[in-house]
Recover the amino acids of this structure.
């Protein structure tokens, strides 16, 4: 999967159908493999930090290079973020896997941090769902009109924080709803089915 859908994107305009959904599948396959086959003795914190740092450095250099090339070739400027845009490309994959492996070395005892971490999958699914993604980034958080604003970094940071808090609240509500409503309802339904089956057998 990595070779077909990630490594091949090093060649511009060439892929075997790479997209964010396939990236989702790849990342979960990698996480599954690491959690089930990697021993803690193999964890090398310095190596994972190196993966993250090198990934970001290469991403930055690729943007600078494509921008400089864009001064000569207009098409290159349009693809200045090509090697970092798209979660399935090799640089974002190296960075994200490096962060995951590095985080395995952490032994956090904070209930607040662990609770927030338990919401992250829901946050990802909510804001990356295609219709929601389109709504958020073309209407709610459309920054095209302020792209040259000096306060753009602050504005986008506030947008990210607001989006994170909103999606976390939605996921927290969903967890509560499923825990205290649907799970209890399910238990009642199955208990009645089991009771009915017991009477039939009798």
């Amino acid at each position: 999967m990595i070779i077909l859908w990630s490594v091949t994107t090093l060649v511009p305009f060439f892929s075997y159908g790479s997209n964010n959904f396939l990236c989702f599948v790849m990342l979960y396959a990698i996480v599954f493999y690491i959690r089930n086959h990697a021993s803690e003795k193999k964890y090398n914190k310095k190596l994972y930090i190196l993966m993250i740092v090198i990934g970001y450095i290469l991403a930055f250099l690729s943007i600078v290079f494509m921008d400089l090339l864009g001064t000569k070739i207009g098409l290159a400027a349009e693809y200045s973020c090509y090697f970092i845009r798209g979660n399935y490309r090799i640089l974002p994959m190296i960075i994200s896997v490096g962060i995951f492996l590095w985080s395995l070395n952490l032994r956090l005892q904070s209930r607040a941090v662990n609770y927030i971490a338990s919401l992250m999958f829901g946050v990802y699914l909510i804001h990356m769902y295609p219709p929601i993604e389109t709504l958020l980034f073309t209407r709610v958080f459309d920054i095209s009109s302020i792209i040259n604003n000096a306060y753009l970094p602050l504005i986008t940071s506030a947008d990210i924080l607001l989006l994170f808090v909103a999606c976390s609240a939605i996921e927290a509500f969903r967890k509560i709803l499923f825990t205290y409503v649907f799970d209890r309802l399910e238990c009642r339904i199955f208990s009645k089915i089991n009771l009915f089956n017991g009477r039939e057998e009798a």
